[in-house]
Design goal:
Low-confidence stretches: 10-23
Helix content: over 70%
Number of strands: 0
Distance between the termini: 39 Å
Mean pLDDT: 84
Structural class: mainly alpha
Number of helices: 24
């Protein structure tokens, strides 16, 4: 389900390679080929490294097809690791490049994936906007695939619009289209997995069990690890809700162990930082030294102005909070602190991804100004730092427990303690502990 771009770009490269067969093989082609072999062996973290290398070389060699193909695959890898924001960034970048190149095949490929990522982000307005453009942008080649993905994206949009039965029917139409047009087992399996996921979401566990077993059987037969991981997720969730403890335990083990081997988060994070560094250097190189100096001066001026405004605003806010705090006597401050301390040590609240200063204030029937003032006074830290500290302390306990480490992936741990993505978790962990989660776990195993 996350390899849509991979399938489309593979078709595009196959169509363009014959035209270039007599050209001298370029370095970017070699690195791209190596990246592809890693990607299709599902070694995503290492593949990301080689796509970055190929993208850099393609830019130097003015190899626009390979450059845009790398952008597409990088977006896809970010999607595989659940980083939808970076995925969106590279899809938008790739689509703009395809428009500049006036390449209808690549335009439709990026549009198909932009619709999917905006659905995943819950932005149905943007998804519908790009869906309208997609319907008006048929590719020059692979017309059957384009028709199939129109049905696929329609189903994704219907789901975000909460039209769940219509979404299931749309996925079934896409499944039938794939079968009728001999589009291969993988395109059929995507729809079967999407249907299984919707039934889990709807808590229709009889149907989710039926479709989940079908997905498992097909993924095992086709040796597709990504879809097998999804089928195990469907099945362990289903069995958990059906009260079948033995099968829940079995499939949870299958899911966590296979997902951990498929997605190496620490390696991906390192490669991602390399990519961000490349992007930073690339954009800087677009300007002359003169413009860079002017930009630096402008930035410094802006920073100074913003800092002054920020200081003034904070100073006024601080004074206001202090004045309001003076309205509280010592007994009231201590009472408020006891209530805050009780909740900030209650993991039910700490592990809630949406836990906020406002929520804390509401729970103890106070306001954010008083609560913030007491936190800063008593803990010598603001609410955000304090919340991260509590979560990371719990993460450390889990990483030190051998039994938990065997059953939980890094992703399972950060989701359990309240983080929505690996980037936020690793950044907070490194700030609090001074090292990454993987390095911390290794140090405790010695």
């Amino acid at each position: 389900m996350k390899n849509v771009f991979a399938l489309l770009i593979l078709l595009f490269i196959a169509l363009t390679s014959n035209a270039d067969i007599n050209e001298k093989v370029r370095s970017s082609d070699v690195e791209y080929s190596h990246a592809d072999s890693l990607y299709y062996s599902q070694n995503y973290s290492e593949a990301l490294d080689y796509y970055i290398k190929a993208m850099k070389l393609a830019e130097k060699e003015n190899n626009s097809e390979i450059y845009l193909a790398c952008v597409g695959y990088i977006a896809n890898i970010y999607s595989n690791f659940g980083d939808n924001l970076h995925c969106r960034f590279y899809l938008e970048k790739g689509y703009k490049g395809a428009v500049r190149a006036n390449n209808n095949d690549l335009k439709s490929s990026f549009l198909i994936n932009l619709i999917r990522i905006y659905c995943d982000l819950g932005d149905v307005e943007k998804a519908n906007k790009y869906f309208k453009i997609l319907k008006e942008t048929p590719p020059d080649n692979y017309k059957d695939s384009w028709s199939y993905y129109l049905l696929y994206d329609e189903a994704k949009i219907l789901f975000v619009e909460k039209k769940y039965k219509e979404a299931i029917n749309a996925h079934k139409r896409a499944l039938k289209f794939a079968k009728d047009n001999n589009m291969g087992h993988l395109n059929e399996m995507y729809q079967e997995n999407e249907i299984a996921n919707i039934y889990v979401f709807l808590k229709d566990y009889d149907n989710s069990l039926k479709w989940g077993k079908l997905c498992e059987e097909r993924a095992l037969k086709e040796k597709n690890t990504e879809l097998l991981v999804n089928s195990y997720n469907v099945l362990y969730t289903t069995y958990a809700n059906l009260g079948d403890k033995d099968n829940e335990k079995k499939y949870r083990h299958y899911y966590t162990s296979m997902k951990d081997s498929l997605y190496n988060i620490d390696s991906f994070f390192e490669s991602s930082f390399k990519l961000q560094e490349y992007e930073k250097n690339r954009y800087e190189s677009l300007y002359t030294n003169l413009f860079i100096k002017i930009a630096i001066v402008i930035v410094i001026i802006i920073i100074i102005l913003v800092s002054v405004l920020y200081y003034k605003k904070n100073y006024r806010t601080s004074k206001k909070n202090e004045n309001e705090a003076l309205l509280l006597n010592d007994e009231q401050i201590e009472d408020l602190f006891i209530k805050i301390d009780k909740l900030i040590n209650d993991m039910k609240y700490v592990f809630d991804p949406d836990f906020s200063l406002q929520m804390l204030a509401d729970e103890i029937q106070s306001n954010t100004k008083y609560v913030s003032w007491v936190i800063n006074k008593k803990y010598q830290h603001n609410f955000k730092y304090l919340l991260n500290k509590k979560r990371i302390e719990e993460a450390c306990k889990m990483l030190e427990d051998d039994e938990i480490c065997k059953s939980y992936t890094i992703q399972s741990i950060y989701e359990k303690i309240g983080y929505k993505n690996a980037t936020s978790f690793i950044r907070a962990f490194k700030k609090i502990v001074g090292t990454t989660p993987a390095e911390y776990r290794k140090s405790k195993q010695k």
